[in-house]
Amino acid sequence: MTYQNYSLAQLQQIDAAHHLHPFTDSKELREAGSRVIAHAQGPYIYDTEGFELLDGMAGLWCVNVGYGRDELAEVAAQQMKELPYYNSFFKCSTPTPILLAKKLAELAPRHINQVFYGSSGSEANDTALRLVRHYWALEGKPEKNRIISRTMAYHGSTVAGTSLGGMAGMHSQLGGAVPNIVHVMMPYAYELKLPGESDHEFGLRAAKAVEDAILEAGADKVAAFIGEPIMGAGGVKIPPESYWPEVQRICRKHDVLLMLDEVITGYGRTGEWFAATTFGIEPDTITTAKALTSGYQPLSALLVGDRIANTLVEKGGEFYHGYTYSGHPVACAVALKNLEIIEREGLVERVKSDTGPYFAKALRERIAPHPLVGEVRSVGLMGAIEIVKEKATRERFSPEGSAAVTVRDHAIAAGLMMRATGDTMILSPPLIWTREIIDMACDRILKALDLAEADLR
Ligand code: PLP
Fold it and tell me: Any stretches that span the bilayer, and where are they (predicted)?
């Protein structure tokens, strides 16, 4: 690797001059310079200066098996030598996407047996949107094409992904969304629960917003509801237990398809292979990406339930949709090996019965009592910390989001990579985290909170 011939300042200067970054203010990037991560091993990432950080975000919610897995590099190299690429259009196929599809059908809930590949979560959601509309058209109901989503949802960054998502800032730059997508309230109890309302009641009220939207349009006009089981980028918003079963009941009652976006939660994060199992629901599609390869290769898989898949077969006709890299042989080879590692090391079970509960307890007992913390919450190895000025009143610091950025900067300086969304701190570490690493992360969070409090008060 030739980057060693460059100083950090040179890399930053070239980066700012030539590289437009995702979700980044280019002006700020020029002024501040990027943090250049140069290598990684196990749970740690290292910048060009050798500064070591515990990666509390598993890259971007994806490196579930941790860094430095030689097996994944080897299987990619072997596949590149054997067959680096061939397409899966026009009745062609290659071995690794075939075998991966079989494996995914085994891991997915029983009624899901088909897979459509892409390279990213955004692409997979484009596919999902087009597929459910295609399904209803095949069923002779082309007007049943409205999609219900939620405010603060994140479903990717393509035009369809942004339209499905409910991020106001993203919509403001869209200049015209995909038509016929509506957004209802999110199930975010911490901020939206009414005085005297229980979590259970709040979950039912948030689900009722889905039914209201169906009734408003007329069920014969609504194709599907889409949701992340736990809203990730929107701030690890965990719905009350009453929410998902009620949403599913409503969808079934009105014959509306249920689309689950498990780009973050898929492949073990919640202590099950899929959060559909965690929340006891049976979606018609599950969007997955990220941890499918632990981020070692770009790959997404839209898991398609029997109801839709059977109609495609029974009615026939081409689905005019696909990507050059759908079923990329190298990405699929890496995914197969990655899933083998997750299984062999029992990572999903470990999150469920050991590290997940330990993480929840550590957040509850060590982090929640801090004066800056309004609430902690987690499922498996996915957690959030709400930063507030006043615990009792839940009053936030102003301007909005500034306090969490202060905490995040101190956390990074203390050696823990975390993310801030609004005034919520987020953790979504590799599933290889042990109890000892969770303790270490909590030490660093507490240090960051103390330093932030001194800055903020
Ligand atoms: N859906 C969810 C829930 C996500 O969190 C993301 C990315 O973070 C996406 C979709 C988009 O995935 P990608 O960035 O691979 O396009």
Answer: none
Residue 1 reports pLDDT greater than 60: no
Q: What is the pLDDT of residue 406?
A: 97
Ligand 1 nearest-atom number relative to CA 261: 3
- pLDDT for 3: 83
Residues 6+ apart with CB under 8 A from 425: 384, 385, 386, 387, 404, 407, 408, 411, 418, 419, 445
Distance between CA atoms of residues 178 and 156, nearest Å? 13
pTM above 0.95? yes
CA of 369 to the centre of ligand 1 (A): 32
Which atom of ligand 1 is closest in space to residue 290's alpha carbon?
15
Residues having CB within 6 Å of any atom of ligand 1? 120-122, 125, 154-156, 228, 232-233, 261, 263-264, 289
Write down the H helix ranges in 280-372. 306-315, 329-344, 347-350, 356-362
Is beta strand 146-150 parallel, antiparallel or unpaired with respect to 416-417?
Answer: unpaired
Q: How far apart are the first and last CA of the chain?
A: 45
Task: In whole angstroms, give the CA distance from residue 43 to residue 268.
Answer: 16
The answer to whether 65 and 59 have CB atoms below 8 angstroms apart is no
Between CA 376 and CA 147, with CA 225 as vertex, the angle to 5 degrees is 125
Ligand 1, atom 7: closest residue by C-alpha: 156
What is the C-alpha to C-alpha distance for residues 266 and 271, in angstroms, rounded to an integer?
10
Q: Which atom of ligand 1 is nearest to the CA of 158?
A: 16
Mutation to probe ligand 1, out of 21, 60, 155 (largest number of atoms < 8 A from CB): 155
Q: What gap in Å lies between CA 110 and CA 121, rounded to an integer? A: 22
- Helix 199-217 / helix 243-253 crossing angle, nearest 10 deg: 20
Tokens of 289: 């990406």
Q: For residue 140, give the amino acid letter.
A: G
Give the ranges where 220-346 is alpha helix by DSSP (H): 243-253, 275-279, 306-315, 329-344
How many Cβ atoms are within 10 Å of 340's Cβ, its own excluded?
14
User: pLDDT value at position 360?
Assistant: 98
Q: What is the mean pLDDT of residues 322-333?
A: 98
Atom in ligand 1 nearest the alpha carbon of residue 60: 8
